[in-house]
Design goal:
By secondary structure, the protein is an all-alpha fold. It has a single domain, classed as Up-down Bundle (F1FO ATP Synthase). Helix content is about 80%, strand content about 0%.
């Protein structure tokens, strides 16, 4: 029974996540004119939310995998702790930079919209 409640809560959460950007994007300047791009911004907002979610999730999974591998390597060979630690932080910086680039692209798409 508990798993059904969790699944229902997850579905409600996902529905809110997918519907809210379109609801907020439909008001304002986009609905004032009779433009052929009136509904387009809603889909841009939805794509931004989904894309950033995928990038953040993938970054989290990648970071977890990288840390797991380095911790395992440190456990097997503690003498190379410094090299493993340096390589770990360089790899984590590269993984995080991909998520930050995605955030920048999302912000450009949301706030520098040339169609309005």
């Amino acid at each position: 029974m508990e798993s059904k409640k969790r699944a229902a809560a997850l579905l409600v959460f996902l529905a809110i996540i997918f519907v809210a950007p379109m609801a907020f994007a439909s008001g304002g300047e986009a609905s004032m004119g009779d433009s052929r791009y009136d509904g387009f911004f809603s889909f841009v907002a939805l794509a931004c939310v989904v894309g950033l979610g995928i990038a953040a999730g993938g970054g989290g999974i990648g970071m977890g995998s990288a840390v797991s591998g380095v911790v395992g390597a440190m456990a097997r060979n503690p003498g190379l702790y410094g090299k493993f630690f340096t390589i770990l932080f360089i790899g984590l910086a590269f993984i995080e930079s991909v998520v930050i680039y995605t955030l920048v692209i999302v912000l450009v798409l949301l706030y520098a919209n040339p169609l309005l």
